[in-house]
């Protein structure tokens, strides 16, 4: 009996130490920081560079869809160039994440150098060293496009508005400590100095993977860590709706599979017309308002690229589901 009591004492002491140690580890890691190289990029005041940046920010790069509050989305969709003051809330299983203010005020990118912004977008490391949750697919953006985007951001009217930091729940704190790391450029893919916009599948691939993030949404991912768990472009990623709590919107399969591919059988004209029509499902997470103003050439290029994908047979069920 007394041996058993001694065992229990030891057992619980060790257990307490392990659990306590784990939580000390988790809490100590809440302010972990990372390092990454600073890309050699400086904003330009050249009007052609700024114009390219403006097109990317309000078009294919869809920064405006995320870095503006919900109540401004209708005006942005109507073509107004509102300064991007952030404040869009993303309800994630690990806590609420808000998009920050990216106007040149000190509550926004005023506190960052051009190289801080370039490093954040390319290497997923925030200006303060924190790992950024991988919402932005711009790691392989060309040097010139990265410069264009930053050049345009610097011309926006500064708005004074501090957006809330991420509120991590207990699961969020544990996952943050163990699994959240900066995501950088794709391995084995060279980052171009510049790209020439044309209608080829090569340019379409650049847009779809590294600018418009078609791939990031049209591939199944682990919602807790962001990791890809499905075959690229086969859809089935259920995104919790930021507009209607409790519902998720599921992305369709964009590969040219004749049975389950959503756009299999669509001509190029049908594809372009569909994107131009814009949002059909009110609570869809897809940034239709930004994509519908993409140039004809950009949409042709994306269509050409999607046609080159390997067909993947994957039916993804209904588009709107309960969580
Ligand atoms: C899908 C939504 C989304 C899109 C699109 C998006 N952002 Fe973000 N952005 C976020 C979120 C969310 C954060 C906060 C991430 C975090 O703190 O982990 C963020 C953070 C940032 C930051 C702050 C980095 C830091 O050091 O703290 C900058 C700068 C930024 N975004 C610029 C841009 C630009 C420029 C674009 C377009 C080229 C863009 N974003 C497109 C959601 C988005
Ligand atoms: C932020 C996530 C997100 C991004 C980025 C995104 N999509 Fe989607 N997409 C969705 C979701 C969710 C749906 C299903 C709801 C809907 O139809 O709006 C969808 C639907 C579609 C549809 C089917 C529309 C229909 O009529 O049924 C097409 C085509 C499409 N996306 C193409 C694209 C292309 C091309 C890109 C890149 C230029 C892209 N998507 C980027 C999330 C996204």
What does this structure look like?
With 323 residues, the protein is mainly alpha-helical. It has two domains: 41-185, no CATH class; 196-323, no CATH class. The protein is 37% helix and 6% strand. It contains twelve helices and six strands. The strands form two sheets. It has a three-stranded antiparallel beta sheet with strand order 1-2-3. Strands 4-5-6 form a three-stranded antiparallel beta sheet, with no helix packed on it. The longest helix has 27 residues, at 2-28. It is globular, with a radius of gyration of 22 Å. The termini are far apart. The model has no long low-confidence stretch (mean pLDDT 94). It binds heme C (HEC) (2 copies). One heme C binds at residues 208, 212-214, 217-218, 239, 249, 251-252, 254, 262-263, 274, 280-281, 284-287, 291, 302, 319.
């Amino acid at each position: 009996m007394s041996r058993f009591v001694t065992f229990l004492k030891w057992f619980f002491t060790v257990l307490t130490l392990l659990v306590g140690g784990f939580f000390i580890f988790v809490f100590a890691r809440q302010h972990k920081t990372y390092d990454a190289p600073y890309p050699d990029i400086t904003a330009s005041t050249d009007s052609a560079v700024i114009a390219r940046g403006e097109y990317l920010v309000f078009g294919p790069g869809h920064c405006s869809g995320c870095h503006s509050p919900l109540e401004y989305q209708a005006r942005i969709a109507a073509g107004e160039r509102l300064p991007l003051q952030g404040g869009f809330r993303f309800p994630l299983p690990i806590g609420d994440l808000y998009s920050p203010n990216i106007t040149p005020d000190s509550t926004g990118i005023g506190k960052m150098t051009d190289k801080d912004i370039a490093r954040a977008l390319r290497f997923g490391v925030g200006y303060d060293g924190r790992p950024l949750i991988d919402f932005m697919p711009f790691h392989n953006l060309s040097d010139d496009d990265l410069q264009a985007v930053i050049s345009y951001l610097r011309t926006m009217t500064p708005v004074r508005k501090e957006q809330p930091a991420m509120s991590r729940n207990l699961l969020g704190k544990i996952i943050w400590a163990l699994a959240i790391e900066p995501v950088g450029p794709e391995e084995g893919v060279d980052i171009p100095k510049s790209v020439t916009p044309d209608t080829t599948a090569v340019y379409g691939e650049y847009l779809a993977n590294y600018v418009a993030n078609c791939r990031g949404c049209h591939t199944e991912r682990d919602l807790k860590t962001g990791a890809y768990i499905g075959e690229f472009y086969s859809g089935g990623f259920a995104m919790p709706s930021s507009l209607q709590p409790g519902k998720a919107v599921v992305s369709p399969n964009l590969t040219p599979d004749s049975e389950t591919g959503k756009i299999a059988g669509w001509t190029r004209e049908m594809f372009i017309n569909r994107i131009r029509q814009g949002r059909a499902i009110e609570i869809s997470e897809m940034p239709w308002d930004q994509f519908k103003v993409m140039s004809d050439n950009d949409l042709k290029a994306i269509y050409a690229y999607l046609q080159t994908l390997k067909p993947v047979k994957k039916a993804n069920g209904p588009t709107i589901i309960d969580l």
